[in-house]
Design goal:
By secondary structure, the chain is mostly helical. It has helices at 2-34, 40-73. The radius of gyration is 17 Å and the shape is elongated.
Amino acid sequence: MRWVLALIVAGLLGVGTTVAILVFGAGVFWLVIFGDDPWPDSAVRVLEVGGFLAGAVVFLVVLVGMGHRASRRE
């Protein structure tokens, strides 16, 4: 049962990391290619979402690490 939970969490972390990298990369690409011309607010919003997703991934990593450490003590 622990392995299933570990695989699910690892999959979620992998997906979250991938999405964060793609979203952040899309925002940087948009700013480099289009600059401030068409919709600068959209590019900034994409960067904000990427940062939020990256923060969520870091939070999950810390949470899983704390849970793993607690389970080793039992």
